[in-house]
Amino acid sequence: MGIGIIGYGYWGPNLARNFAAQDGARVAVIADGNSARHAAAAHAHPSARITTDALSLIHDPAVDAVAIATPISSHFTLAQATLDADKHVLVEKPMTATPEEARKLVELAARKKLTLAVDHTFIYGAPIRKIKELADAGELGKTLYMDSVRVNLGAFQSDANVLMDLGPHDFSILTHLIPGTPSTVRAMGADLVGSTHQNVVYCHVEYADGAIAHFHWNWLSPVKIRLCLIGGSRRMVVWDDMSPSEKLKVYDKGVSLTNPTESELRKIKVDYRIGDMVAPKLDTREALAVEAAHFLDCIRTGARPWADGHEGWKNVCLLDAAQRSLARQGEPVPFEMPQ
């Protein structure tokens, strides 16, 4: 299967490397508008055609599927052109700049019976796959909350704030692990260095069943932290992506309330459950390698990608609601996916 890569800046080389390593696939064409990147692309993939013209890549007969790793503002135009050319497409996060653009891509892919996937890389990583396995098996119980910190120093984006840069990662994990549809989104943040975009953002998501999620994104942290806590009614999970070992820990801990007697009506009786901690063995495969293999398999079999167009659309709608709340100084915004 011939793969075309549009964009060979930061993420494109990773996509090209992983697709080239898949059985039955080859990188056929690489397009980047910056000709200074062409030498590196040609060196890494000597059999690929290198061009500045993305449209020529899309219409090249040697290309069966396209992976797009370009600035957000170009995602919709390039993905739409790819689907119009009857080719499958994988789009870097976020899928589009607006919910309306995302809806149009979902409808176009469905109408043409093509695979539309979004590069929500973290859900293909071993820690999230293991958490998903535990959740689906009922090992965690009902999900009560998700609390995530994703902070580092930089890298500042010229066309997006920290919400648009880091938020898609956590929102993709949220919707992958917690069933149902969010009800409201709130976000507050600030541009603390005069960069024209917010570089520190706090976001809160609520569900109708009472589940909540809280996120902290920051480009001004002196240390890099990737820490996520997921509390279930049966077990709790801590995922520390910066840990050199034991990235994932599952705790058999929790609380339960007991009914007070008549003489204890003013007291809250809490039973604390303190059990074992288990650090599951995790698959060592690179997340992007798993994602590339899954995308190709979905094309061949017609299966639905874990991060399909609908998940990408939901992700963009969460981002849109958070952006609107951010503009209103943290006012709650209803979550909507306009049909």
Explain this structure.
The chain has 339 residues and is of the alpha/beta class. The protein has 2 domains: 139 residues, NAD(P)-binding Rossmann-like Domain (Rossmann fold, 3-Layer(aba) Sandwich), CATH 3.40.50; 181 residues, Dihydrodipicolinate Reductase, domain 2. It is built from 9 helices and 15 strands. The strands form 2 sheets. Strands 14-13-12-11-7-10-9-8-15 form a 9-stranded mixed sheet. Strands 3-2-1-4-5-6 form a 6-stranded parallel sheet, with helices on both faces. Helix 4 links the parallel strand 4 and strand 5. Helix 1 crosses helix 8 and helix 7 crosses helix 9. It starts with a strand and ends in a 5-residue tail after the last strand.
Number of helices: 9
Q: Provide the β-strand percentage band.
A: 25-35%
Kindly report the average pLDDT value: 95
For the record, give the distance between the C-alpha atoms at the N and C termini, rounded to a whole number. 34 Å
Number of strands: 15
Helical coverage, percent range: 25-40%
CATH fold name of the largest domain, please?
A: Dihydrodipicolinate Reductase, domain 2
Instruction: Indicate how many domains the architecture comprises.
Output: 2
Q: What is the gyration radius calculated from CA atoms?
A: 22 Å
Helix/strand/pairing category: alpha/beta
